[in-house]
Amino acid sequence: MTVWMHGGAYSQGTGTQFGGRTMADLTQSVVVSINYRLGQLGYLGLSELAAQDGRRSGSFGLMDQIEALRWTRQNIGAFGGNPASVTVSGQSAGSGSVCALLAAPSAAGLFHRAVLQSGPCTLLGTPDAARAEAEARAFADRAGCEGPAGVAQCLRAASGAALVEAARTLPTSGPASGDGLLPVAPARAIGSGAWNKVPVLIGSTRAEARLFVALSQPYLTAEQYAAQVLAQYGAAGPEVLARYPVAAHGSPYLALSAVMTDSTFACHTAWTARTFAAQVPTYVYEFDDPNSPTLAGAQVPGLDQSNAHSAELAYLHDFTMGDRPLTAVQVGLATAMKRYWGAFARSGTPAVPGQAAWPAARAGVGGATTLVLDPSATRTSTSFEADHQCAFWGAQPPRSL
């Protein structure tokens, strides 16, 4: 059985957007989608609240997720599920939540496998106590609660409108580390071997950053692209431009999308997978459908937004936010993907009779075998890291998302 953690930058979304009926029917499994507290009030790192709860206050959303797993263990048998065979799965911030669950001592034993989609643990960092406190204070200030003390009481008395307006203008960093709930940042915990070790399925889409570039800089010019790369990457900027020329990609939008995809989601997926593979059975995928739907409301006329962040969701869920239905060929890929995910959830190995074999990544091997999920022909590849220029990006200063 699978417990699904939705994404949405820790600030939006709901489990009901991701129906699990087709997955459950096809794989003869139980799918649970949960809600958890979001936004500043879901991750409110006020030290005065820490006095009320030794686990600190910055991770209410994570506490909700752990409680949902406890509830599942206690009650899922009544729905035909097996409490001794639980897979926790998430995408984007939901994957970041899975990273946190892997590192949270109080989540130990509540799940037995993990799926991380488009949210590698080395990319999605967690704020420490000082940063969480600063973000909570900024939120309180915006809501009209500015004093050095009594902030929690003031927030409890604030109007809903004031809280909504304050949250609307501030990002949410998600669960904080350094407390009793999440003592160590997930990437560090996993790297040290001090985590809730379970088999892992991890991957990303071929062109993750197309979503973000399309929404922020859809009509980027070549001059703007060059200036942005030189400003952002400093001394490495000229080499980035040489490795990602506009002419080779077809447009400044596609070139910048490739730079951002490779330097963030793609290579961090590869690096996170290596860390997992040294310790547990690990299976790596890349979603690659050049005609995949776009998130409804995110389409920009004239731009190729295929394989962008969230593209795979319509293939795994009864997803309510795709801009168009899947074609018959895409439904075939969706069926194969559900069967892979279902097999992994059932046994920890994504082995499906009649479908392409999905070998585990081997520890310490660069260019780990990746299953490429392509509607024309699902296949294995060992060129993922080369395709995304991960050797180059690994030599650059680390950047979080």
Automatic annotation (TrEMBL):
Stored SUPFAM superfamilies: alpha/beta-Hydrolases
Keyword set includes Translocase: no
EC number from the UniProt entry: 3.1.1.-
UniProt cross-references to Pfam families, sorted A to Z: COesterase (PF00135)
GO molecular function: hydrolase activity
InterPro entries in UniProt: AB_hydrolase_fold, CarbesteraseB, Carboxylesterase_B_AS, Type-B_Carboxylest/Lipase
Enzyme class: hydrolase
Residue ranges of every copy of the Carboxylesterase type B domain listed in the record: 3-393
Transmembrane regions listed in the UniProt entry: none
Keywords per UniProt: Hydrolase
Family the UniProt entry places it in: Belongs to the type-B carboxylesterase/lipase family.
Name of protein: Carboxylic ester hydrolase
Upper taxonomic lineage: Bacteria, Bacillati, Actinomycetota, Actinomycetes, Kitasatosporales
